[in-house]
Amino acid sequence: MRRQEGLGIIEILIAAVIMVVGIFAVVSLQASALGYSNKVRAQQKVLSYAQTELALQKNALTNMSSTPSCLTSFETGYLCTVSILPCQLVSNSINCATGLSQPLAFQLKVIIDGPRDTQAELKTLVSQEDNQ
Predict the structure, then answer these.
(1) Is residue 91 part of a domain?
(2) In a 3-state reduction of DSSP, which class is residue 79?
(3) CB neighbours (10 Å) of residue 86?
(4) Which of 19, 49, 98, 116 has its CA at a distance of 20 to 30 angstroms from the CA of residue 69?
(5) pLDDT in tens, 13-61
(6) What is the dihedral of CA 54, 58, 59, 62, to 10 degrees?
(7) What is the 3-state secondary structure (H, E, C) of the chain?
């Protein structure tokens, strides 16, 4: 019998297939990570826009009866919505709804819709005293 030294063609093919499968797995993981990274970056941008708009709205809040509109110009693909609701204290909880008379505070809500199905919604309460 001849003694075989080194690797045969079958062993080399099996090793090559295992390496190719591993490389494809790594490339697939890298593509997924890049996709998630882009989604997170888009979400951070939407949240930053919402925080900026909320701060501007809070500082500019003078006429509670006017129809609110966004104060910031956003790049194409972003939609801003602002709402202001009067709030009252009812049974130790704050109730915010349209049509309340003599509100103690106002709920300011900013919603920013962005690309890639990203959205940020921020709310804050502004008391009558803060507003004057």
Answers:
(1) yes
(2) strand
(3) 20
(4) 116
(5) 999 999 999 999 999 999 999 989 999 999 999 999 999 999 888 887 7
(6) 140
(7) CCCCCCCCHHHHHHHHHHHHHHHHHHHHHHHHHHHHHHHHHHHHHHHHHHHHHHHHHHHHCCCCCCCCCCCCCCCCCCEEEEEEEEEEEECCEEEECCCCCCCCEEEEEEEEEECCCEEEEEEEEEEHHHHC
Is residue 38, in this structure, part of any structural domain at all? Answer: yes
pTM of the full structure: 0.70
- The total number of structural domains in the chain stands at 1
The β-bridge partners of 72 are: none
d(CA 125, CA 112): 18
Structure-token match 């970056």, residue found: 41
d(CA 131, CA 107): 12
Per-residue pLDDT of 81-114, as tens digits, reads 998 888 988 888 889 888 888 888 889 999 999 9
> Alpha-carbon torsion 129, 72, 80, 49, what sign?
negative
In a domain, 1, yes or no: no
If you compute the radius of gyration of the chain from its CA atoms, what whole number of angstroms results?
29
